[in-house]
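Hi F.,

I've been meaning to write this up properly since the lab meeting, where we talked about keeping a consistent format for the predictions we share between groups. The idea is simple: the sequence comes first, exactly as it goes in, then the structure tokens exactly as they come out, then a line or two of notes. No screenshots and no reformatting. I'm using this chain as the first example so we have something concrete to point to.
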Amino acid sequence: MPIGNDFPTYWSNLVAGVTGTRRIRSFDPSAFEVQIAAEVLDFDPTSAMDPKMARRMTRFIHFAMAAGKEAVADSGIDFAAMSQEDRDRVGVVVNTGGGGIEAIIDGTHVHDTKGPRFVSPFAIPALSGSMGAALLSMEYGLTGPVMTQVAACATSVIAFHDALRLIRTGECDIVLAGGSEAPVVPMGVAALANMGALSRRNDDPESASRPFDGSRDGFVLGEGGGVVVLESLAHAQARGVAPTVEVIGGALTADAFHISAPEPTGRGQARAMTNALRNAEVAPDEIDYIVAHGTATPLNDVTETRAIKTAYGAHARKVAISSPKSMIGHLVGAAGIASALAAIGAIRDQVIPPTANLRTPDPECDLDYVPVTARKARVDTVAVHGFGFGGQNAVAVFRRLGA
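Output, unedited:
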């Protein structure tokens, strides 16, 4: 993540309100209207992959492999000691929005300047959105379902939805689930800037991302990846593990409205929230914390606020809400896993990360967004939002085991 290359560092910095936005370092942004992003720094892909394979693959795959390895190590599961039949029941769902976009850019440049026979034979695997999940399955010999969904900014919330279904239907005992994205490339920054989606606070990068604030002017593009190990409770108990957090439900809907703008009333988002609560069998007033999509764009934050009011009724004014994007920017296909990790940390440590940079609330965004400073609170049940370009809406619900 832009504020830490492992979960403990990410979580502690998130609670502390540390911001990962700075002037772009991966290329010279001097000619760009937007010169800031939330990049992952000091990351060595060979810490997670063979150096030769790391050179052949792209950055989103590097993130997926590093995050997946951290998750597996943390879980204590030894896949090598499993029988083939047991590994047949382990799946991988690692989603992305854009995949290996730099392989497309680099391959096209080589083609245009040197000719077709110089294009790398590894370009297609390197750009493939499914390769993060596939390489993780190869790393551990996992022969259950390997899936990658592409749903823009909702995509790694959908990973939890799919993983939960694989476990509930009995197809898998374990699923590695998450998302990865590396969109901070010249074309990506230029296109989003020209769309008017990005903050232009080049002179004040640390406070550029301002979800729900009246002065917000767009999101900060970020990059990163995350993976968690989902496991059926019976399987966890059989190996002597007592999980802290469970995934209890989720839902997907569509706006069917516009290629980038949310439907103004928030109806589709509200239906995703309501359906997710129904699927999780929890009432609105049982939600202690909402990890908002909270992009800091003028349209999204107002629409999400309207949707929360519709779905939660009177409880909308009581529930705590915050946006990790205020610190890490918008990770697109990895935004949902970043939010899920915030939910997991909040339940584990009973503390809600803040919405950094929220100092002058938009009058239309009039809910409790936990501004500036983290808050100690009882957190048993959390809803995680992910809303993507094209009107793709996803919500997942997490709960403290035994709550």
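Notes:
The first strand starts at residue 22 and ends at 23.
The chain has 14 helices and 13 strands.

If this format works for you, I'll send the rest the same way.

G.
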